[in-house]
Amino acid sequence: MAYEAKFRVWRGDDSDGELRDYLVEVNEGEVVLDIIHRLQATQTPDLAVRWNCKAGKCGSCSAEINGRPRLLCMTRMSTFTEDETVTVTPMRTFPVVRDLVTDVSFNYTKAREVPSFAPPPGVAPGEYRMLQVDVERSQEFRKCIECFLCQNTCHVVRDHEENKENFAGPRYLMRVAELEMHPLDSADRVAAAQDEHGLGFCNITKCCSEVCPEHIAITDNALIPMKERVADRKYDPIVWLGDKLFRRG
Amino acid sequence: MTSGVGAPTRAKITARTLRTDRWWLPPLMTNLGLLAFVVYATIRSFMGKWYWVGEYGYLTPFYSPCLSDSCLPGASHFGTPLPELPGWVPLGFIALPFLLGFRLTCYYYRKAYYRSVWQSPPACAVAEPHGSYSGETRLPLVVQNAHRYFFYVAVLVSVVNTYDAVVAFTHGLGLGNVILLVNVVLLWAYTVSCHSCRHVVGGRLKHFSKHPVRYRAWTLVSRLNARHMQLAWTTLGTLVLTDLYVMLVASGAISDLRII
């Protein structure tokens, strides 16, 4: 059953902008991205929005809906009442380009700062052999679609622009954890997690896990295990002594 | 607002948050819950009476182990190696600081009080009120990394609490025994579900396949770990309930419901 929904959409660029009100038709089964597209088609042909797969797998249409970081294509209109005003804004952690489109290059910079997979010496591509039980933990993190909602919601950079330089954000700390737990990765990533990627900034308030559209347990399975590994290395004299005495790797 | 969500390059939105749900409710409830427990635990720890029911062998966990000459006869299951204590020292002073440290540095409670007490952040996508943020990178919060040491002590205290609950069964069976038992089982569940425990039993391994027993242990702890938050709150409740029951029976306000 169709109805007219009240939408407030942020329009503007890096110099100025405002929330503008629209009335848009909504049909049964639609998601917020459908409504944004209808808005483009019928009222605001210049509305900028980044989107691609419409299936929650490309991570392009990240935005904030009623203040909550969400994928536009995975937010059903049926979750709102018909008289509710739906507010759509760009992600508020990254520089805005125009309307709902932000410059997410911060994330690409952080991605490049994580050294890539380092197989053991003498093992060539094609010769990698590992057991499922060993690689399972890392595989959870491979579900990431790089929507950057976790990066956007993390208060370390969302509320403190100055931390962007020293903090990789949950997505790339998870990448560090993925490689650290990988059975064939031979690089030592523990010290760098704390000293270079800023793991110590994380105060495990779990917003990254809350907004992840892939339901990855980022905090419990990546960030806290990495914090514990850092504690092994830097803050636990008994483990340090054990490693020295028994030459544990 | 010139930094954070108000930084010059970001979308010009003046509101601290555009969330329309009751995002303030969880931190408020957390604050009230923690405050209620802290007030109750403080009063009871310093009360110095109604912690032991000699007839049925019930000892409240707030006073266990009771190791000084100030303890009531029978309440000291492990002897009294310590002399009489001044009245202002809680009789459970050996274990209480470590249990407090265990909960303060617990990964769940950290999330809870960072969000509710320190408002950092109060809720997801709600701007925090602080001008700067260094997280757990330096003192005092870098001390949170000592959580595992508090975990080790908490295991010992759980053993002591288990002993207390078992000793009480030698006096027969009453509702108090059931309460002590349920409390100790849940305390074990909370302690074992700790993130540091998960790391110690197997999480730190790179190859699970080389350590099948530790992998099995890690799998079991991981299952419990997913309920860590629920266990954290449940055990606060059972601790209060257990202590309250012992206090009421010890003071004579109620009589224990005897089963055998």
TrEMBL record, chain A:
Pathway: Carbohydrate metabolism; tricarboxylic acid cycle
Known cofactor(s): [2Fe-2S] cluster; [4Fe-4S] cluster; [3Fe-4S] cluster
EC main group: oxidoreductase
Catalytic activity, EC: 1.3.99.1
GO biological process: respiratory electron transport chain; tricarboxylic acid cycle
An annotated Gene Ontology molecular function: electron transfer activity
SUPFAM superfamilies, alphabetized: 2Fe-2S ferredoxin-like (SSF54292), alpha-helical ferredoxin (SSF46548)
Stretches assigned to the 2Fe-2S ferredoxin-type domain: 5-92
Pfam families reported for this sequence: Fer2_3 (PF13085), Fer4_8 (PF13183)
Name under which the protein is recorded: Succinate dehydrogenase iron-sulfur protein
UniProtKB/TrEMBL annotation, chain B:
Taxonomic classification: Bacteria, Bacillati, Actinomycetota, Actinomycetes, Pseudonocardiales
Keywords annotated in UniProt: Membrane, Transmembrane, Transmembrane helix
Residues passing through the membrane, by range: 23-43, 88-109, 149-169, 175-197, 231-254
Protein name per Swiss-Prot or TrEMBL: Putative succinate dehydrogenase (Succinic dehydrogenase)
